[in-house]
Amino acid sequence: MHVQKYRDRYLPAMGLDGIAALPDKAWAPVIVATGAIEQHGPHLPVAVDAFIAEAVITLALERLPQGASCYIAPPITIGKSNEHTGFPGTLMITKRTLRALLLSIARQVHAWGFRNLCVINTHGGNTAVDLYTLREIESKLGLRTQFIAPQVDLGISEQENFFGYHANEAETAWMLALLERHVRPELAVCDYAGRIGDPGELRAERSAANFNWASQDLSKSGIMGNAPAGTKEKGELWLPRVGQAYADAIAKICKEAQARG
Ligand SMILES: [Zn+2]
Predict the structure, then answer these.
(1) If you measure from the C-alpha of residue 110 to the centroid of ligand 1, how many angstroms do you get, rounded to a whole number?
(2) Cα 45 to averaged position of ligand 1 atoms, centre (Å)
(3) Which letter, b or e, does each residue of 179-195 get, where b requires 16 or more Cβ atoms within 10 Å of its Cβ?
(4) Which of 122, 180, 184, 209 is most enclosed, with most CB atoms within 10 A?
(5) Shared-domain flag, residues 136 and 201
(6) Count of structural domains, the chain
């Protein structure tokens, strides 16, 4: 199998003739990553979400089966991060800016001849905007759109699964495996915004009545999860499974788009 590289699929690295001659624009999706640059506790760099999006796409490309294809648009690296602005290191764009960026990219790739657009999102604060904008793109521009978010069972604890949602075990493990020199594991702490089985119904997440939170309301450290449990070994074990899940999702999208013709 020919292993595909990020830079070979990155549209801005191609010239006019190269883009015009791509043979599979009618069905191969253009992937837009929506990430974030925001506080990730004292132990991780602020670009975690933007960096992980790039890593996930790189891993997925290496695992794409024969007959599948995709192209990569410039990533949107700053996200809608209102909830993290109480900490230094956070940058943010508004929901309007995020929508406008996605729409602008969609409009142009449609004009270039592409008919399929996917978002890979690594920041929860973007999700709602990504979803309503993709519906708008689909209805206004006639592009098929998908939001790729495969569930990968990492075998983490139930507590971490429910209340580890930021700078958590998985993100710490992934970053140690990908970019160890930018991680300071000695500063990692375990901070949970809630406990499974605790009485009470109004919670930050995963309850019948969630309140809308800012990260400083939930965590002094900025961490929400068991960061010290995230090790390099776990990251190296989990990342190929995550990459495979994204490759499978992209392959499925290609297959369905080809079948539609
Ligand atoms: Zn994150």
Answers:
(1) 30
(2) 10
(3) beeebebeebbbbbbbe
(4) 122
(5) no
(6) 2
